[in-house]
Write a structure and sequence with these properties.
Length: about 280
Amino acid sequence: MAITAKDVKKLRQMTGAGMMDCKRALSETGGNFDAAIDLLRKKGQRVAAKRAGRQALQGLVLTRLNDAQTLGAIVEVNCETDFVARNDEFEAFAGAVADAVLNQQPADMEALLALPLNGGSTVQEALTALIGKIGEKMGVRRFKLLSVSEGQVVDYIHPGARLGVLVAVTGTAPLQHVGRDVAMQVAALNPIAARIADVPADVQEKELEIGRESARLAGKPERILDMIAQGKLKRFFKDNVLVEQAFVKDASKRVRDVLKEAGAQVHTYVRFALGD
């Protein structure tokens, strides 16, 4: 049968695929719209396979909170170019994935990809279709859920949506303001742990050994190497442990001082920076 411009336009509206792709699909399927849609989906799968070796280093980091702010979700969704990261359809897909993670709480990435989205397709099917339409490698790189039985989960997205943070805080006072300050601190200074007790033993031992060797190379006596190394470890904590860090909004205070003044405590956090 003859393929008309109206047929091509209709298929394009149904699928979002390019005009020439729609025309070829209709021609190859004799004007059968269902078969043409299947063909375009198969094309999307081929595009995904063709692009598998490419790097997807751009994208979005998004957060979502439940109404009670006791559960937060953070996701990273990648694409190849910043241009696509600002595409409305890519943003809508990433937002739908973040909503699905919050509402359905998958256990792992395999479970996430099998989650249903609003349109009835799974995350994987929607992703494959979007790859076929836009023609770039894309993927959901990672996600994390953070919950509290008491207190509040506070989120922060840095302008541009390339960096996001979730922070779990408890306390007797309103927590939104201090929680946001702490989340911004995490975003800006990227601490390795919330508290000294949370710093892994192997990291502490590595810093002690670096301190000893530095002092040894400086000609310090062996009997004081451990003391010097302990001093360097304390400075390491001040630079790299969240509650010990100088507060970014007022360097005369430590984060622990800010938390104490607000009657709050920080328990854990999640920080996603695009491409980390």
